[in-house]
Write a structure and sequence with these properties.
This protein is mainly beta. The protein has a single domain, classed as Galactose-binding domain-like (Jelly Rolls). Strand 2 and strand 3 form a beta hairpin. The longest helix has 11 residues.
Length: 253
Amino acid sequence: MKYIRSAFLLPFVIIFVALAAPDASSQETTLLVTDFTPPHTQNGHLDLPKGWTLKVWQGTPDVKIVGENGESVLRLRSDKAAVSIYREVTLDLSRYPMLSWRWKVTKLPPNADARVINRDDQAAGLYVIFPRFPSFVNSQIIGYIWETSVPEGAVLQSQKNSMVHYIVVRSGRRELNKWVTEKRNVLEDYRRVFGQEPPMVGGISLMIDTDDTRSQAESYFARVEFSPEATANLKPPPNRFVKFLAPELILPK
């Protein structure tokens, strides 16, 4: 996801200073990021979940809240475009390490491959942003992506932004057209990817991206939340950055 640069990170950094972390008294409470239920924010013909902001890097956005099986879900479509929605979410991963969400991909960008600089497109990605001070350009990002070509479980560094690391949660057509529930220990993922303890989370972004492959894609997102489930107190490994696929950085699902 080559577009996560300073222009994207700045809103998180500005508001990060003003937001308080979750109170210790809410330790056992699940933190709902969004379930896409009304009310929604109207933006022309677009329908955005409340509290989320649209960002368009390329093409025409096609973002809509739709009903499916009695539930409100987010639908993202892309035709040679790169579009995301994002919101500020400030929390401490030592209290809320577990991130869960539901998603469905119905159309993949053909021949897309995050390992190839001019084919770095994905039908769906959920990005966790870690603002770092004093410079917002040092902010780190973990992107949980549904890839076309890169194998599931792979971890790789973006070739266009060294602070962005992808974790391939799903890949290919095997689960196409099915709702899939994901659960990730973001605290553990951060330690294993960046080799250190994480700063506070500052934001969440959902993205669809097909401008490199000049193709089309479609994906859906449902309930996104953090929870305080117990996590292993792992010793961080040595810091390491990878540009391409590295077998030792295959993470368990």
